[in-house]
Amino acid sequence: MRLLSILILLSFSLRTAYAQTSPGDFLQYPLGSRFTPYFKVMDYFEHIAATAKTVKLETYGATYEGRPLVMAIVASPENMARLENIRQQNVAMLKGQEAAGQPVIIWLSYNVHGNEAVSTEAAMKTLYTLVTSRSELLRNAIVIIDPCLNPDGRERYVNFYNALHSKIPDATPYAREHYEPWPGGRSNHYYFDLNRDWAWQTQVESRQRLLQYNRWMPQVHVDFHEQGVDAPYYFAPAAEPLHDAVTPWQREFQTQIGRHNASYFDAKGWLYFTREQFDLFYPSYGDTYPTYNGAIGMTYEQGGSGRAGLAIETRQGDTLTLKDRIEHHFTTGMATIEISATNAGKLVSEFHRYFRDAQNAPAGDYKTFVVKAAGNPEKLQALAELLKKNEIEAGFATGNGSGGSGFNYFTGKTESFQVEKGDLVVSAFQPRSNLVRVLFEPVARLTDSVTYDITAWALPYAYGLPAYAVKQRLAPSVQPTPEKPAVAPAAAGNTYAYLAPWNSAKDLKFLAALLHHNYRVRFSETAFTIGQQSFPAGTLVITRAGNKSLDGIPDLAQKMEIALVKVPTGFVDKGFDFGSDKMRFIRKPKVGIVAGDGVSSLGMGEIWHFFEQQLEYPLTVVNAAQLGGASWHDLDVLILPDGRYPALNDKAGAERLREWVKAGGKLIALEDAAAQLGEGDWGFKIKKDTTGDKTKKAPYDALKAYANRERESVTQFIPGAIYKVHLDKTHPLAFGYPEYYYTLKLNDHLVEYIEDGGWNVGALRNADYLTGFVGAQTKQKLRDGTVFGVKEMGSGSVVLLTDDPLFRSFWENGKLLFGNAVFLVGQ
To answer: What tens digit of pLDDT does each residue of 535-575 get?
Structure first.
């Protein structure tokens, strides 16, 4: 017994000796002397959680590469004992319930951009300080620390840097250690920018994080970043444009936090700036998304990013070290916790008022949004699923009923309409009212044209669905899920063929599955009718002829929720019979994509993710450096993502590529890649700006104020605006679409109308601009040209997509267009 007592005492003493070890002691090197691998960061957080009663560590998911995603909840012992009750009372405020005496909830997000790796180092110091010397802050606050939102990207950067930096850090700006190889560590596994994905939740990291964020709903959220090496530190208040959904209180407390941060920086003599560059407008950032959900959402930016390494000399002649950068992020993090804890009561009461007002007196011009399926229930369901991920309340009308007048997104006019059975109805009278407003508003009002990201994103355009924004509150009878359409009885007789629809990404995935299972599939080049049922161009046709068996197709269709039609004959009443050459055979294509230097990693990643995660169809990635030596005969389709390709400027290489196309290959070029082809001998040209006579200038045009240089630059600026594209529905590139497509333009590229040997499938005419900021000169240029076209060359073709139909994977309406380019064009 005595021995047992001694062992227990010894165990307690050892635990006490090692309890709450500092990061430096635990890692056995000082913070700032090297970058910490992610597994060691996890070891440290697990150590603190095991030794501190004030920390609860939760694993909330995993990355594409299998790394854990964790969050540390830090609270006083008293609050930790009632943690779940606090969380429930906090979320209850969204429904209008008051929660007097609640602690403020502060969420600190680190390292969403992997090569902005300093913030994870700062997270360890912040955690240690909260459980040791500043634990008094936890009396009125619960702090949630997510130490790394993007572990895959961070490890890509840390492994690069730790493998080749000099023993003594080389601060020379042009040293090798200050230049990451392609694609860099900023993005996640699929090269997505996770800081643009909060609302869209296209990536697994975002979806898992937002589940936890919406479980807690903090009052304060900070997103820690890095910017250019030479920039001083940035913290709130944010720059204009601030969306007018941002409340006066949110603006006011941002300023309070900024002044408090400044007091610490002033005492240290550290440089900083506020109210510049980083605005609160685009809704899918780590500062705007929390803001539109009632929090004080902020971005903090330290100079450095992937170039700084352990030390780098700035253009001012100073040496910026990793230790400096850690200290700056640590200081703003602690200062934000400090002032938020001091104002806990006010923050909680304003949070309650925010959601009370949202439900009872929503801001904004429109009180109801009605979205119609227009024969495309799959897209409507996809939209409903996005709203559900964001906990936005919406319902499907159960019958025909109320109506009135509303802003028609597609015509740009106020028109009469009726709510019909199956319409998706979204009311502004709900807790997430401001987020609804921001995501659906037809025209977002910019208070400043110099903005950081896209300026238009309205969901009806992104999903290609007719919709009305209504100034009145409509309350038709709705249900949370749509009624499943009645299944028509299968045609009598033997199965001659199955027919499948073609108007959504779901149908595209079904085709990919059919090809994966080696079914032979056709598509109809024209509309046709069998009996009383009509089928549009693009309809998939899977005949018994050419297939060993069709037995597995109904089960596959049911699993993928595809409405098959069984027909007993290939004889049609109108149109062309199934044996006609108008029923085009779809060859199972071998698809390649170019990656590497010169290629946009974001653009390439969108396509990579689309094939692997959405279509589940194989994709061969070819390094740009090996493009000249690739075996073209192995590929049917080659995709050139946005970028500039040295191989296209090589005369022999470009000719070899043209010969491959002429022999039957299909080249798909996007954005700058399409523009680069237009500079060469490919049979088409990129439209140039011919507005006005550039040879004659007014005598005083050159007299411009230096202070207005940013304003002058935006005349050629297009950060993201929506245009209406007129489609040639008879071409396979446009199958599954109505007469129009809504494109998000991020550049001024247009192809001159193709006159010979090609097709202008998607074109802009004189006045097709809809919404979003476009500089005056660029707006003049963007008219009368081709956005999406096909140039035929010999037996092959070049598909030109001057805009990105897969932009950030949230532009849902573009996915079928891209699928058409891959699978249907040129068959």
So the answer is: 999 999 999 999 999 999 999 999 999 999 999 999 999 99
Spatial CB neighbours of 425, under 8 Å, sequence gap ≥ 6: 368, 369, 370, 371, 394, 395, 396, 397, 419, 474, 476, 478
pLDDT at 328: 98
With a CB cutoff of 8 Å and minimum separation 6, the contacts of 772 are 444, 454, 455, 456, 719, 720, 721, 722
The confidence score (pLDDT) of residue 449 equals 57
How many CA atoms lie less than 13 Å away from 373 in the CB half-sphere?
20
CB 420 within 8 A of CB 397: yes
Q: What pLDDT does 145 receive?
A: 98
Q: What are phi and psi of 787, to 5 degrees?
A: -90, -45
Tokens 């037809």 found at: 442
Amino acid identity at 118: V
Each residue of 722-758: pLDDT tens digit?
999 999 999 999 999 999 999 999 999 999 999 999 9
Strand partners, 621: 593
Pairing type for strands 413-418 and 424-427 reads: unpaired
Distance, first Cα to last Cα, the chain? 85
Is-cis flag, bond preceding 719, omega within 30? no
pLDDT of the residue at 691? 55
Alpha carbon 198 to its chain centroid, in Å, reads 7
CB within 8 A of 18, min separation 6: which ones? 51
% helix / strand / coil in the chain, to the nearest 5?
35, 20, 40
In the structure encoding, which two tokens stand for residue 648, read together? 């296209």
* List of the chain residues with pLDDT < 50: 1-18, 693, 695, 711
Q: Where are the beta strands (DSSP E) in 3-65?
A: 55-62
Q: Are 666 and 826 in contact (CB under 8 A)?
A: yes
Dihedral of the alpha carbons of 188, 194, 199, 201, in degrees to the nearest 10? 10
- DSSP code at position 311: E
**Residues 6+ positions from 763 with CB-CB distance below 8 Å:** 725, 726, 753, 785, 786, 787
Largest CA distance in the chain: 102
Phi-psi sector, 95: left (phi>0), alpha (psi -120 to 50), beta: alpha
* Residue 678, burial from CB neighbour count under 10 angstroms (0-12, 13-18, 19+): buried
- Tokens encoding 66: 């299998």
Q: DSSP of 762-825, one letter per residue? A: EEE-TT-EEES---HHHHHHSSSEEEEEEEEETTEEEEEESS-TTGGGT-GGGHHHHHIIIIIT
What gap in Å lies between CA 336 and CA 257, rounded to an integer?
6
